[in-house]
C-alpha cells in the first residue's frame, strides 16, 4: 500500500477524528506513555515562563500530557487536520492553549525562529514526507539549548518487536479501524511504522540534524521495543547530511 501523505492523510484524520479518542483510549498505557514522554522534556518549575510547541497535536492528547508536565507553560498546538483540531479545541481542559491549523511545511513562514523553549512531537515524524526538513525547522524554532522530545512508534530493530506490532495491528488495531469506517487510516498506521526508521536510525537522524545529547528512552507494556521517547537539545550548528 502507498502511505497516505499530505492532504490525503489530513483528510483521513479529519474523517477519523470522531472516533479517534475512543480508539486510542482502549490502548493500554496510551495516555500514561504520552505523559511520561512529556515529563522527559525536563521542564523546571512547571514550565513557568516557557513557550512550548506541541507539533502534530491531534485531538489534544499530547497537549494534555504537556499541561500535566508543565502546567504553567504557554503551549501552542499545531496540526494539519482541521477535524482533529476541532476535537482538541472543544476540550475544556485545553481552553488556555493556542491552537493553529497548519501543515508542518508552512510553519517556517508562520513562526519566528527561536520562539520556543521546547518542542514536543507525538506520533508525527513517520507521517511526514521529509522528516529531515522538519527537524531542521524544529531546531530553528528552538532557542539555543531548547529541548525536543519525540514520542513515536519506532521499532527497536528486533524481529520479535516487529512481529508483536504486526500481530497487534492484525488482531486489534486494524479491525477496530474498519469497524469505525477508517480502514485506510489504520492500514496506514501499521505500514508507516514498519517502513519508518528503527529507534537507532531515528536517533542518528536527530544527531545528523544538529541535536545534541540525544537519548532513546524505552516505554513499558506491550509497546516496549515499539514506542520510544527521543530527547535532545538544539544546537546552533547546522545538521550534517550524508
From TrEMBL:
Biological processes per GO annotation: antibiotic biosynthetic process; methylation
InterPro entries for this protein: SAM-dependent_MTases_sf
CDD domains in alphabetical order: AdoMet_MTases
Keyword Glycoprotein among UniProt keywords: no
Record SUPFAM superfamilies: S-adenosyl-L-methionine-dependent methyltransferases (SSF53335)
Database matches in Gene3D superfamilies: Vaccinia Virus protein VP39 (3.40.50.150)
Keywords carried by this UniProt record: Methyltransferase, Transferase
GO molecular function: methyltransferase activity
Transmembrane segments: none
Name this polypeptide is given: Methyltransferase domain-containing protein
Organism: Streptomyces parvus
Higher taxonomy: Bacteria, Bacillati, Actinomycetota, Actinomycetes, Kitasatosporales
Amino acid at each position: 500500500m502507498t502511505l497516505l501523505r499530505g492532504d490525503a492523510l489530513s483528510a483521513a484524520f479529519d474523517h477519523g477524528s470522531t472516533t479517534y479518542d475512543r480508539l486510542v483510549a482502549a490502548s493500554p498505557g496510551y495516555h500514561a506513555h504520552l505523559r511520561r514522554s512529556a515529563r522527559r522534556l525536563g521542564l523546571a518549575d512547571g514550565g513557568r515562563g516557557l513557550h512550548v510547541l506541541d507539533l502534530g497535536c491531534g485531538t489534544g492528547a499530547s497537549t494534555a500530557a504537556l499541561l500535566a508536565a508543565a502546567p504553567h507553560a504557554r503551549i501552542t498546538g499545531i496540526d494539519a487536520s482541521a477535524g482533529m483540531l476541532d476535537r482538541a479545541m472543544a476540550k475544556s481542559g485545553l481552553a488556555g492553549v493556542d491552537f493553529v491549523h497548519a501543515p508542518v511545511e508552512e510553519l517556517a513562514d508562520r513562526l519566528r525562529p527561536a520562539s520556543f523553549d521546547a518542542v514536543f512531537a507525538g506520533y508525527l515524524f513517520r507521517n511526514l514526507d521529509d522528516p529531515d526538513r522538519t527537524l531542521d525547522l524544529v531546531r530553528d524554532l528552538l532557542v539555543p539549548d531548547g529541548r525536543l522530545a519525540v514520542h513515536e512508534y519506532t521499532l527497536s530493530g528486533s524481529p520479535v518487536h516487529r512481529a508483536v506490532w504486526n500481530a497487534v495491528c492484525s488482531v486489534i488495531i486494524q479491525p477496530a479501524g474498519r469497524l469505525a469506517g477508517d480502514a485506510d487510516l489504520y492500514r496506514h498506521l501499521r505500514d508507516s511504522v514498519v517502513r519508518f526508521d528503527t529507534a537507532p536510525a531515528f536517533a542518528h537522524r536527530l544527531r545528523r540534524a544538529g541535536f545534541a545529547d540525544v537519548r532513546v528512552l524505552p516505554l513499558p507494556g506491550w509497546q516496549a521495543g515499539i514506542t520510544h521517547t527521543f530527547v535532545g537539545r538544539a544546537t546552533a550548528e547546522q545538521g550534517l547530511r550524508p
